[in-house]
Amino acid sequence: MARVICFANNKGGSGKSTTCANVGYSLSVLGQRVLLIDGDMQMNLTLSFFSEEDALAMARSRRNLYTVIRSGADLSGCVRETAYPGLSLVPSSLLMSGIEYEVFSKKRRTDLLEKALAPVAGSGAYDVILIDAPPTLGSWTMNLLCASDEVIVPVEASPWGLFGLANLFDHLAQARKSRPELAVGGIVLTKVNERKNYFRQTLESLRELGDVKVFDTYIRVDSAIEWAQDVSRPVMAYKKSARSAGEYMELAKEIMRNGSR
C-alpha cells in the first residue's frame, strides 16, 4: 500500500498547498513514485503543475476529484501525468465548493475518499500519495484525514500562525475515532524570517506541545517560490539553486526518514 499523507491546516496562508507541491516534486526527484491529490476548490495544487487554461479545462471535464466523489467511482480514471517523471496528479474542480453538501447528503460518511482511493493506493503504482486539504474543518476535510495514514501541518511563522491550531487537533481527534491509525507526521514551519522575533516565539510554542514533532527543516521566505508559482512549476524545477529548493528537498528527506522508522 502507498503511504498516504495529508497536508492540513484550517488557517489560510499557511503554505499548505505550496509545501505539498514542492515536497511531492522533491520526493519524485528522490526516486519515489508520487501521486498528488488536490482536495481544495482553490485548485492551487493543480495550478502548481498546470497552466490556468489547462487547470480550468480539467475542472470542466469529468476527470477530476469532484466528479469521482459524486459518482462513487475510484480515482484511477482521473489521474493526470505532470511534466515530471514519477509525479502524477488528481486535479480539483471549482465545483468542490459544493462538496460539503455532497458529503452531507450521503449521511455525513467519512469514507468517501478512502473508498475512491483504495484501488489506487493498493495498486502498487505509487510509493506515496500526498493530499492537499482545504483550509476548513468540515466534513470534507474529515474525509481526507480518514483516508490518510498521517497528517503534516504547515504553520506560518507569524504572530497569527498558531491561531486555530487547537481546533485542528480537536478535528484530528475526531478523525481518529474512524481511523485510529491516523498519525501526526509533524509540524513544518513556513514563511520563516529568522530576523523576526516571532519566528523563535512560534518555534518555542510549537516545541512546548511536547508530543508533536516539529520538523528540523523549515522553509524560509524566498521570492523564487512566487516566481515558480507564476509559471506553474515547482521551485526546484524553476530554479534549482534557490534556497527554498534545497529546503523542500531536505524536508522531503526528513519525511522519508520518518516513514522508514
Could you walk me through the main structural features you see in this protein, from its secondary elements to its overall organization?
This protein has helices at 16-29, 44-47, 52-60, 65-71, 99-105, 112-121, 139-146, 165-178, 197-207, 223-230, 235-238, 243-259, and strands spanning 3-7, 34-38, 80-81, 87-90, 128-132, 150-156, 183-190. The protein has 261 residues and is of the alpha/beta class. It has one domain (3-259): P-loop containing nucleotide triphosphate hydrolases (Rossmann fold, 3-Layer(aba) Sandwich). It has a seven-stranded mixed β-sheet. It is globular and about 50 Å long.
Quick recap of the structure?
With 261 residues, the protein is α/β, with parallel strands linked by helices. The chain has twelve helices and seven strands. The mean pLDDT is 92.
Q: What are the key terms here?
A:
single chain; 261 residues; alpha/beta; Rossmann fold; seven-stranded mixed beta sheet; 12 helices; 7 strands; 43% helix
Helix content: 40-55%
| Number of separate structural domains | 1
CATH A-level architecture: 3-Layer(aba) Sandwich
What's the overall average pLDDT, rounded? 92
Ranges where pLDDT stays below 50 over 5 or more residues in a row are: none
Q: For the record, what is the CATH homologous superfamily label?
A: P-loop containing nucleotide triphosphate hydrolases
CA radius of gyration: 17 Å
Largest sheet: 7 strands, mixed
CATH class assignment: Alpha Beta
Task: Describe the global form.
Answer: globular
Please report the total strand number as a whole number: 7
